[in-house]
Amino acid sequence: MSEEIEHIKCLIIGSGPAGYTAAIYAARADMKPVVYTGLLAGGQLTQTTDVDNFPGYPNGIMGPEMMEDLRKQAERFGTDIRYGYVSSVDFSSLPHKVVVDESKTITADTVIISTGASAKWLGLDSEQKYNGFGVSACAVCDGFFFRGQDVAIVGAGDTAAEEATYLAKLCRKVYMLVRRDEFRASKAMVHRVQHTKNIEIIYNSETTEIIGNDTGVTGVRILNNKTQEEKVLDVTGFFVAIGHKPNTDIFKGWIKMDETGYIITHPDSTQTNVEGVFACGDAQDHIYRQAITAAGTGCMAALEAERYLAAKEHVVTA
Fold it and tell me: Would residue 299 show up in a list of annotated catalytic residues for this protein?
């Protein structure tokens, strides 16, 4: 890499609600932020359809349109948004060093990580075909659209159990598809599911196909992995709750994470274990995983980065 190294004040890695909100606040604080969008510019919401629960959109908005609005707002205040991905980092000294697209080296006084997380999927072609048209990885986000309808949810952990009971408040019937003959969820969550009248648990079941037409999902084909019996459930919604994977692999060895890869930040803060590096959004939030909470932590990260820089610039020496 023979080209000149570029130095910037505030580097934001990743876009989506967290990254763009951080950019808006950082730009208004005259930090001249540079955003590298990552391979999926705009994050997970660009792969969704209707967003009805983000404040300020009384009639709802399409996910890609909302991300375009946030991008334009960030640019309006002077954010430099670049399409590319950070391929490696070196946080061993200040300023921090990152490599973009495996070719360009940048140094940064502050780094805001907003790389998000990716939902784990079953890997079915039909699952991707109807993604956003009856197939979802977020019951809290999309359950409202299935009020009074029959739906299925696949998963056996705490998140699946929690989302099943959430759906049960909205939907007529919830089929909970559990791959083994027992849950992985905590006893309390299992008890809650088992005592919710409109949840039917189907053990030893594997989803083989999502069935649908031009209007969306109409059913799901499942296989009993013990008896090999196959049957079709008539549902209009199919929810996948088998976990998320935070997009944090490039930070391993530098940033403290939990066992699943979510970045650990200081209590009531977005500050990581590395000075001048902050993390926001789904890369560090395994509990809420909502666009509005991601945006909130993006705001926090930018404010903390600005205060960090201000303190560095005004060090009083004896």
Answer: no
User: pLDDT tens across 159-203, in order?
Assistant: 899 999 999 999 999 999 999 999 988 899 999 999 999 999 999
Q: Which two tokens stand for residue 266?
A: 């200081």
**In this structure, how many other beta carbons lie within 10 angstroms of the beta carbon of residue 56?**
8
Q: Are strands 117-119 and 150-154 parallel, antiparallel or unpaired?
A: unpaired
Mark whether 90 is an active-site residue.
Answer: no
The token pair at 106 is 């940048």
Q: Which candidate in 141, 171, 280, 299 is catalytic?
A: 141
Q: Which position among 10, 138, 171, 280 bears the catalytic label?
A: 138
Match 């993604």 to its residue by tokens.
131
Alpha-carbon distance of 295 to 111, in angstroms, equals 17
Residue 142 designated active-site: yes
Residue of 142, 150, 282, 285 marked catalytic = 142
Query: What pTM does this model have?
Result: 0.81
